């Protein structure tokens, strides 16, 4: 089956607009290197995405900036263009990382 996913290139990023749990329209950055779709806490709350567990993780970056909590969650219903999927694994980036050049947004992992 063929799906049409409209995208926009903005600020050197590929962006797609999705509807999460039929509650929130969210602009996602297409992140082909991620293994999960990600949401910052305010967007997760708006979309009714509820964490089921919190993990501690360390990433790249300066000392004390790369450590954070990630909340494991599930998106019950995600629609992007013609693509409509259910039970999508997600991470809520909570808290968001300080010291970044721009605020963290949502990321869509295909």
Brief synopsis:
This protein has 110 residues and is mainly beta.
Would you spell out the secondary-structure blueprint of this structure?
Elements lengths: L7 E3 L2 E8 L3 E7 L6 E3 L1 H7 L3 E8 L8 E14 L2 E11 L12 E3 L2
Parallel strand pairs: 3-8, 4-7
Antiparallel strand pairs: 1-2, 2-3, 2-6, 5-6, 6-7
Low-pLDDT segments: none
Report the principal-axis shape. Answer: globular
β-strand number: 8
The secondary-structure element order is EEEEHEEEE
What value does the Rg take, in angstroms? 14 Å
Count of helical segments? 1
| Distance between the ends | 15 Å
Strand composition percent = over 45%
Largest sheet: 8 strands, mixed
Helix content: under 10%
Structure class = mainly beta
Mean pLDDT: 87
Describe the structure.
With 110 residues, the protein is mainly beta. It is 6% helix and 52% strand. It contains 1 helix and 8 strands, in the order E-E-E-E-H-E-E-E-E. It has one helix spanning 41-47, and strands spanning 8-10, 13-20, 24-30, 37-39, 51-58, 67-80, 83-93, 106-108. Strands 1, 2, 3, 4, 5, 6, 7 and 8 form an 8-stranded mixed sheet that branches. A hairpin with a 3-residue loop joins strand 2 (13-20) and strand 3 (24-30). The protein is globular and about 40 Å long. The relative contact order is 0.28. The model has no long low-confidence stretch (mean pLDDT 87).
Which terms would index this structure?
single chain, 110 residues, mainly beta, 1 helix, 6% helix, 52% strand
